[in-house]
Amino acid sequence: GKAQTGTGKTAAFLIAIFSQMLAEKEKKSVKPGRPRALVIAPTRELSIQIIKDADVLGKYCDIKCLAVYGGMDHAAQQARLEEDPVDLIAATPGRLLDFIRSRVIDLSEVNTLVIDEADRMLDMGFIPDVRKIIRRLPSKDKRQTLLFSATLDEDVMSLASQWMPDPIKISVDDDHATVDTIKQIVYPIPTKEKFNVLYNTLKQNEGKRFLIFRNRKRDCENLCNELKRYGVPVAELSGDVDQKKRLGILENFRKGNITTVVATDVAGRGIHIDDVAFVINYDFPYEAEDYIHRIGRTGRAGVHGTAISFACEDESFIIPDIEELLGEELHCQQPEESLFQPPPAHLKQETQKSFRSSGGKKRAVRKQQSQAPRRGRRSGGRRKGKQSVSK
Questions:
Q1: 182-340: CATH homologous superfamily?
Q2: What is the reported pTM?
Q3: Category of 6 on φ-ψ map: left (φ > 0), alpha (ψ -120 to 50) or beta
């Protein structure tokens, strides 16, 4: 199936799976580690989000669901799989293979397989692992297989023909790769003006959620640090951020404790939050398909959002490829003059002081404390100490 991001693909396949499970006349005896449905997802965050959606949709269905992913919680996941029955598992390929090899998970009773974001599986090199997993499942004529993707190119369709007996292609609004709830804007600006335009866009829309994309981890870190120097509450999501911290950042972003996140493409794919107001392509992606996935983080679930891309002198070459994939031209416009204003210099200085203040104040206090005893010793405090000991 092909549909734009944020249109409800996850709910579509979860409802279908739950309906099938509930319709079974005699419910199969569910055993630990032997799911009846399997969802394979490219990222940890997506597998976690799928299970969160499943818990909401299946709240009164008595259907047990579990997310299986790498990076953390190996022992907890294994204990749950070994002790409790589970109906549906949403898993990343690597951790799932680990549990299969250690015989913690047995896929012989799976009757529904979902491969979510198949195009990203290809991009991230997971297809060999997915093939190994599928070989552990019942044959394709004895299971239902659903494959979902934001784009259906020849490679994805080739996978569908391998894993499905008679694949049927379903496309939602095939003429447009993105939903109508996303307003797309391109700012043709020099590289040196990028930060000013970003900073002022953030300040003009304070309180709204922003997801900013950069192509490299190092650039994410640098931009994050620069925004912090001007007092912008921001967090970084890249491959260098450990899983526990990533989950904490996403939870704070979801709750609104953090309103700005700077991410790479791989890390940003795991962000499924319905009220991201702005996606900023600080750098245009290297691949046109990544543009689709990036801007799909906004305008989700019928809520309107805005995607702004900075087209600089060395990045505009990708625009024709994006327009061909979109089936429409991108709207280019000059930013308002106010967006080019440099951030106030005094803000940066004050913020730099505030970053040192936690250590500086402590040092100041320690200095005052250390001076006090010296004054006391000069006034005879030492002899008082000796008297108290003699007592």
A1: P-loop containing nucleotide triphosphate hydrolases (3.40.50.300)
A2: 0.64
A3: left
